[in-house]
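HUMAN: Mind sharing a backbone?

ASSISTANT:
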Amino acid sequence: MKHGFSGLFLMALVGAAALAQDAATFEAASIKPSLAEPGSSSAINTERGRIAARNVTLKRCIRGAYDIPESNILGGEKWADEDRFDIDAKADSPAGDHELMLMLRALLADRFKLTFHRESRPLAGYALVAAKGGIKAKPAPPGTPSAGTSRRGGVDATACSMSCLAMKLSEAIHAPVVDETKVQGLFNFNLQWTPGDMDVAVFSAIQEQAGLQLKGRKVPTDVIVIDRAERPAAN
């Protein structure tokens, strides 16, 4: 049976809506405009069965719910990047992070009326490759727990693959990064740079500290394209 583009697109939206409807949902959830000072940091914190998101945009929530860098989230109105919210949500059981993120997806569909589709697009970004002289990053000892954070000025990660590092770098520099190192295994990374001339700082840091390089190029990038979103009613 053949489907035109519009038919496939409609099927994708209906499928996404059905998944959101069938997914586990929070027992209670509060969404309010954030009162944080301009320039304050944002965060999504989880513990068993609870999410506390502070000073977050809709795109920051999509990033957490779907594990995708914000640079790969396209479309949407200006407010989706600018309006900030505080979200407190509680499950009816001690759910772990994976289930909480599935619940967050359902919450975004319900309260923000979020619908989107996925595409692969060639975007201006970087390929992560091995530098001359070889990898300097230290392999993670067996049993090291996997963890990682990215921030303005660095990336810290333990038991992290090269594709994981590419994701963290993408979050830190707000541009797509794909792994082309062909290096297997898990490593510990502690990359530090001085925010400012970001390109120069990042390039130098990852080469000197990890034996890696970023090569600028168009890279095939999986993106989320927002089709519809509404500001949630405060409660």
About this structure: Residues 35 and 81 are 16 Å apart (CA to CA). Residues 1-22 have pLDDT under 50 and may be disordered. The longest strand covers residues 212-228. The two ends are 46 Å apart (CA to CA).
